[in-house]
Amino acid sequence: MSVPISGKVIKRLTLYHHILSDCLLKAKEYISSQQIAELLKIDDSQVRKDIALCAASGKTNVGYNAPELKKAIEQLLGFQAQKAAFILGAGNLGSALAKHADFADYGLDIAALFDIDPAKIDRLINGKKIYPLSELHHVATHEQLVNKRRVEIAILTVPASAAQKSAELLVQAQIKYIWNFTPTILSVPDSVRVCNENLVGNFLEFTNN
Amino acid sequence: MSVPISGKVIKRLTLYHHILSDCLLKAKEYISSQQIAELLKIDDSQVRKDIALCAASGKTNVGYNAPELKKAIEQLLGFQAQKAAFILGAGNLGSALAKHADFADYGLDIAALFDIDPAKIDRLINGKKIYPLSELHHVATHEQLVNKRRVEIAILTVPASAAQKSAELLVQAQIKYIWNFTPTILSVPDSVRVCNENLVGNFLEFTNN
Q: Which of A85, A147, A191, B90 could cysteine-pair with A153, CB 3.0–4.6 Å?
């Protein structure tokens, strides 16, 4: 991405993306900025301004072409190249994220899941295999040597008690970004970036406003 | 809550709460603002300022009493009274949220889950029963008449194709807040507030910065 885009704009654009996906489901080819604005209860001019960032333009009296605009948002916000991620913890949350359809749209590929429960090993979730956590380093090396890609993103959904230990394994496996869904503050080297996904914080903010 | 607290402060306070929970797990009784600041890579003075909102004070050279500060944050951010919520969709994500330990700390009780899959009906998740979606109105009425509480919050984790229909059932059941985890923009009356939980947006913001 060449121009930095603010967090608020990114979030609105992903919401427009949801609306456009819904248009495609309903075989609706065009949508206007007014229709998008009404659904989100925001201002029409804001929608047009955000969409202008994608260099997409609407047609008078018709609106935006939904499949084209959807693609344009994916290109603007998505990764320049396809990126791969590991999921640590194949419980309910890890499984839900492995099935998340939107990731693929933005160029994020789940390379593999990891767990310590022997009953889960070798199962497939959404076509992705679950490996023993002890094989993390091995799978990362295999991705690099055989699939010619370095997996730099990890999604952490293990129990809180296993979070710090898992983060240390991720550091050893040269992961650069940890998306942390555990309620644990991880201690990692400065070279590794952690995004704490704070569901309770989001919820409290919502109900307190 | 008497004083409005900004979203950013709420999120930081919930992160301090995570750290304090971890202290309790490790039987660590005191923690200083410097230690909290270091873990989160933020400024020490910010931590002290946020914590002052809880009317909690630390002891010189010792820091804050972890169990007391944890409780103080829960009281500041939590609901004045216990609140109840329904979860619609007992798939992986709904199940993960039903098991979320932090909700109870902040006074949110999951009253029941709902699904349309006959194989899931009557099962328990974390002690909470799964009902057929068709019984939503009935269960809501029962909560009001028998348990003397009005369930006003719903967490929506159904497939995108079922999201709008589910939202309409929620409106009929007099739900006031919908926490929407589906990638669908819901159309509901103005009296109902929707919080779109935008996981992909959060993630894109993280990796693009």
A: A85
